[in-house]
Amino acid sequence: GDSVTQMEGPVTLSEEAFLTINCTYTATGYPSLFWYVQYPGEGLQLLLKATKADDKGSNKGFEATYRKETTSFHLEKGSVQVSDSAVYFCALSDDNDMRFGAGTRLTVKP
Amino acid sequence: DSGVTQTPKHLITATGQRVTLRCSPRSGDLSVYWYQQSLDQGLQFLIQYYNGEERAKGNILERFSAQQFPDLHSELNLSSLELGDSALYFCASSVEGTGTGNSPLHFGNGTRLTVT
Question: In 3-state terms, what secondary structure has residue A32?
Fold first, then answer.
């Protein structure tokens, strides 16, 4: 079945560093792809999405491009802040349900 | 605020007991999803309802059951609880029946269940 694999954490960066969190997927059809973020003590929040190949989702300085040729949807941010510390989940949606990756914990130090 | 309300926020109970978790979806959303989040297994999809009917089933144990009522709120019932059932249980809602690009999931803040 469809699945999502994302890089294991935790990831620790200094403020203003460049962030990449890798995500690859396996799907038989043409899924939509998402990044969700979970701040401490809260539920998941949609960060960005892309619904077809070559689409770029962006929000709050984060961006990810739907790459069909490499079946990837890597999350990037040019300059992270302490407030970006959270757990990031890559997710895939097909006709049946939403499948999440295992999550990557990001800690940004001042 | 996602608009999804989950109660209670915390629940502590003993092994063998039964509990009910409640979820009110975002206004206008017809679909409700339940997920279990534990430290070692990440976010596991349990079950989905759309407009009162079961739409999809994931890794839900037979000891667990759920339903969606006519007013669209949903309840997740966990029975014969075991220590390993301790986890965060999230409810999410969406407008449509599937988590498509036009209908992403909106999550509640979860219910933390501790089984002692």
Answer: strand
**Both structure tokens of B16:** 């063998």
CA-based nearest distance B112→chain A, Å: 10
Question: Using the beta-carbon criterion (under 8 Å), do A97 and B33 form an inter-chain contact?
Answer: yes
Q: What is the pLDDT of residues B38-78, one digit of tens each?
A: 876 678 889 999 999 998 888 899 999 999 999 999 999 99
Size of interface A-B (CB pairs under 8 A): 65
Amino acid at A63: E
Residue B26 structure tokens: 């975002």
Q: Which of residues 39-58 of A touch B (CB under 8 A)?
A: 41-46, 49-52
Which residues have C-beta within 8 Å of that of residue B93, sequence separation ≥ 6? B3, B4, B23, B25, B26, B29, B31, B32, B33, B105, B106
Q: What DSSP character marks residue B15?
A: T
- At residue B19, the 3 state secondary structure works out as strand
- Judged by a CB distance cut-off of 8 A, whether residue B90 touches chain A is yes
Using DSSP bridges, classify how beta strands B53-57 and B64-68 pair: parallel, antiparallel or unpaired: unpaired
